[in-house]
Amino acid sequence: MSKPIWVWKLGGSLLNLDDIPRRLDQAVASFPHRPLLVVGGGSIADAVRDWDKRFQIGEDQSHVLALRAMELNAHLMTTIWPRGLLVTDRSAADSAWRNDRVPILQTRLFLDDEERRDAAGLPSILPLPHTWEATSDTIAAWITLRWPADGLMLLKSIDRPLNDLGDAVDPAFSRFVDHIPSLKWLNLRTYYLSTHRF
Question: How would DSSP label each residue in 167-185?
């Protein structure tokens, strides 16, 4: 029986960790499932947000540029993390897992293909908003439902809030979270350090 598939959303704020590859290796080894990595836009997506305010780009075009930011960070991860492998679809992800690699999803290309299917009238889940209310957390939740995956792991720079997720995720996330089979939260900034004390 194959291991369950989980979408792992890597917060862009974690990309300032010099040892992010080692932390990911350690985290992947600690969880008994097949991870599909979705990399957030981080500071590059923040720049897009600033451009939208400055030049009134509009939410649709900002959505496209923010996906490009995620794409750039995905390419960065495959450059610095030998275990990562860029993929665009389910077949390529399956191949990566068979070869003990971690597929890193080229989010923009996957979304473009899936949303074209929707436009062709194929069955769909909740549509993905193309607004600033739906950033990479919601995109990862949408991918979890669309793949479909068995759960979503949010790799963050902070601990999970005790009550509701509030400002720790984007506003649109609440529309999707109740449909996700399972949700986990990992503060990757402290996880590695707390499990490697000398």
Answer: GGS-GGGHHHHTTSS-EEE
